[in-house]
Here is the input.
Amino acid sequence: MVATDLVEEILALKKERNAVILAHNYQSREIQELADFVGDSLGLSYHAADTEADVIAFCGVHFMGETAKIVNPAKTVVIPDMDAGCSLSDSCPPGQLEAFLRENAAKNYYVIAYINCSAGVKALSDVIVTSGNAIRIVEAAPKDRNILFVPDQNLGSWVMEKTGRKMDLWRGNCYVHVEFTRHSIARIREQYPDAQVVAHPECTYAVRMLADEVCSTEKMIGYCRDTPVDSFIIVTESGMLHRLRREIPGKTFIPGPTDACACADCRYMKMNTLEKLHDCLLKLEPQILIPEDIRVRAERPIRRMLELSK
Ligand code: 13P
Ligand code: SF4
Here is the structure.
């Protein structure tokens, strides 16, 4: 099928199914262009919670589809590829977190989980954060409790720097963002001395130190639009460049390189294609299904986050 026919078929199926297509900022240009909403994890969570559609087609990775299902148990949530996982989410299996909490029961941890985790981990958490609201939510955490932050140690240490709040960090990371190095970013900076460096907080401390701004993918849009500079080096997954170029056409966006590549792609995010999106709307499969006891426990910390970040 040629691409224009495929896009038309997807739009027709979307209408027939009364579906909404949500896409993360790291999706391919074709998917971003036909989605009803493109955004970061926080914006996507609000859209998923508010939608009146019967079907949510979630173009992102598995934990994002799960989040949509947790807040919409009666709706059908489909994702284009069931294998689109996340290295960060995988670095904190619920069984390991549960055992750690049991072994450290004396610490009476208040568990703050970055949204990039499974429903099982959310069910063990007190509150969820995204990169867009983590500072505000950590600041609001009970002052008399020890905090355990899971699963991203880089985002966790960035939040500690920003809030001054001490937290114990789970030692997980995103395999894409840790590929940027001090060397690879210093080199591109030398090549484009007038460009500002904008980095995601999942990057390592050494890379964050070289950045003019560290923020979530959504905040990158506002920062690059409002800062009176013409070019930016974007240190996050390459899909972000599509949105920046589409919404801020007058400026130049240079992908942040790794030591091995000119840009960084998340292999999980890039598993989604127009063909698979078409098929999931047609067959209503693969669907996200979550055992109800886990879903109910996972919903509480998500709702707490949505409330706190209003
Ligand atoms: P945000 O879009 O929330 O900044 O998250 C980035 C990410 O890595 C999602 O997988
Ligand atoms: Fe997970 Fe990293 Fe891919 Fe985001 S970019 S989905 S954190 S592996």
In short: The first helix runs from residue 3 to 17.
